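re: that chain from earlier
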Amino acid sequence: MPPIRVLHLARVINRYDPIDTVVRYLPREHFSIEVATFEPKSNIQPPDYERAGIPHHVIPVPSIRSYPAYLKAALRLARLLKDRSIHILHTHHYWEGLVGALIKLLYPSVKLIIHRHYAEDIMILGGWKVRILLTLEGLSYKQADAIIVSTPSVRNLVRNLHKKIPSSKLLDIPLGFDFEADKYRPLPQHERLAFRQAQRIDENACVITNVGSHRILKGQIELIEAFTQLVKDGVNAVLWLVGDGPDGAYLRKIAKPLGDKVYFWGWQSPDMVRLLMGASDIIAHPSYSESFSQVMVEALALERALVISRVPGPIETITHAETGWLIPPKNVEKLYEALKILIANPQLRERMGIAGRKHVLSKLHYKLINPTYIDLYTKLCSPSA
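^ sequence. v structure.
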């Protein structure tokens, strides 16, 4: 039997992210995998698919709001699918799903998978924008042969928003990660100490780190407010903020009174992010919304104590006070209390870190997840499908 030909469509794909583990590690004797992205470069770490012998097509869409470009991309991708004899188009995220639905109209024989990686993001916009986006999303779901969600919470959200979706279309498949990669390897103690010393961190100080885009929805404002209260209490701690974004200037403004207690690292390479997270004592991720958090997985894999919002994704991965510490989103007081408890209890932080890594390795390793994709792709392309 000839290999099943699958094309993955995303805005970008980074090395070691969950899309990459599907693209890179499915058995080549059964599947021929290609990728298409709207941007020529990754935003974190290039996957180097050409070196791996995986065709990578770039279909330019300048920005998320370049709406006419999506129509052109759909036409180009439809021709590409026909020329490459693609059997399955596997799309990732919102606009990619809409493009996939347009392609399905133009090229009905292709099997369409829409992978929903987001949770309540659309609902946060409010008003007429929500109605338009949900209507378009519903139309794209009608075209899909399968809709993948990564957690039961996201599945329930989709079912509530789109009640007419057949249950047979909606599939729960957790995200998979390559935990053998250095990116997810805990930092040895001597490397932790050496890095902290290089940053002139007091050996008794507690380092709290946040990694992510600097946007209101990521909760850094609440984190700075909670940290300010810790400093007023005389707690020996520093705050590292890794990343940048549209609200970065405002975060720097409100953190300025804290002086060198807060350091803005900007965007860093994956190797540097591992050093920063691994050298930290607590990873704080008080985001307002998550379908599933990459930072959460990295923190757990690196055996770091994690404080994270009680939102979809984390609530199905974290056992409170065992593998992480769950807090209500947008709640400065609860965030402050969680940080204060963990700062005062290094043994608890250590136990949580060890338990967190054990949990993600036993549940989210790509070797456990990829067989599900093998079964799905095979089923979609079977003569009875």
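The domain at 4-178+365-380 is CATH 3.40.50.2000 (Rossmann fold).
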